[in-house]
Give the backbone structure.
Amino acid sequence: MKSPRCTGVTPVGRTAGIGELRVPTAIAVTGADMALPPQDERTLPATVLADLDRLPLDRALADVQALVDQYGHVVVVYSRSVPAAVEQRLHTIRSLLESDRIALFRPDLPPLAVAVLARQLRQLASCDLGPGVLASAGRLLTHYLHAGALLGSVARLDRVPVVGLKSHARSWVPGSQFGVLAHPQPELVKATPETVLPGPEFGTWLLVARGPLQSDWVTEVLAPAWSVQGLRETHLPAESADWWGTGKAIEFCAYLPDLSVLYQLVTSVRQGVCHWCGIDVIGDRCVFCSATPPPASDLTARPAARALTAGDRTNRTEPARPNQSHRIG
């Protein structure tokens, strides 16, 4: 396994041809409760862009511009349940700054899993990964998260397609609780000591965020069934009530905590060069300028462009399983 070349919070290298120290790419979140405590001593702090929709536009512009000036590139990770005004403000700032050094990443994950993913990117930000590769890694790492919640009601849950009318009716029975898996494959079970949700086939830790719902099902039934190798607890994100349709929830996310495993997963994927902005990326779309590879006909007509984009797709159609010889202890 490759060992990550990391330097903690110190600069991670020198800019080629300039000789100036390069600081890590900034990983930003939209609320303090989305900035989880460090997983290890190498996890860089999160930049919190709080109250973006309430700040005067010129102040918000100045704050984000200062981040770009300081770090060079900024990756903003936020959930799909963030207030619409916040998302609109993010796009407005990026447009007004006319910057292709700001990446907006909104994965289709529950809020706790988004916070976990942001922390994984903060871990990787201390390594020798370019900003395009680091930002692209977010889409790759979503494949290794198992995210869900224990709910007291699914009557208002509309983000998980397996929840139908029968489930809604059952949720009205007093005392019913439901285990819901939102990612990677939607699943719903009635929470009992004998029923669990399908879990990961590789070693993970489990992060649990407790809301005002009384139950030990996640920690005493689900966690042993998933053979988790560690368990931590945190506060329920403010956005979770909107995402799950109820504040009576215990949200959970199984994840890979080990930086060396994350680094191996990212660096094992073929890298390419964005044909538009020239940044190194993984995958078929640049997260900074949003460019996709040109049509095949254009590449045939332009051999130089074909050479630049030939490696711009991952060399796997499905995510690889983490190396099990490096178990997470």
